[in-house]
Design brief:
This protein has 123 residues and is α+β, with helices and mostly antiparallel strands. It contains three helices and six strands. The longest helix is centred in the last third of the chain and has 7 residues.
């Protein structure tokens, strides 16, 4: 829906989903997301959810972008910087941590290769 919802009272919502967003998705001076999270609100970020409020346009390659506000870092604990071109990477799953998230993750192999955009973050 309209991201301006994030500038208003969010108490009627149980979950906010940021899905493949980028750019300035709401006015950070008016945002209500930070306070809502502090009061127990939940946010689910999918794909480029942390790629908002950056000082650049090209996220691919060596271009490191810096955040222009700390809203995303406050909500997620980090902020997107960039990613190299898609590549194949070796993935290792920490089985105990995966099991703590959900029992279905126990079926994921301990090690596997995957071709994707591997994001770099500020922390």
């Amino acid at each position: 829906d309209d991201p301006r919802y994030l500038e208003n009272d969010l108490s009627e919502f149980r979950l906010v989903v940021l899905l493949n967003n980028s750019g300035e998705i709401f006015d950070p001076a008016k945002e209500a997301l930070r306070a809502w999270v502090r009061s127990g609100g939940r946010v689910l970020g999918v794909h480029a959810a942390l790629a908002s409020f950056l000082n650049g346009e090209d996220a691919v390659g060596g271009t490191v972008m810096e955040p222009v506000t700390d809203v995303i870092e406050h909500v997620f604990g980090t902020h997107f910087q960039n990613h190299p071109p898609p590549q194949t990477g070796n993935i290792r799953i920490h089985q105990e941590a995966a099991a703590a998230v959900h029992k279905h993750l126990l079926g994921v192999p301990k090690r596997f290769s995957h071709h994707d955009e591997f994001f770099n973050y500020t922390k």
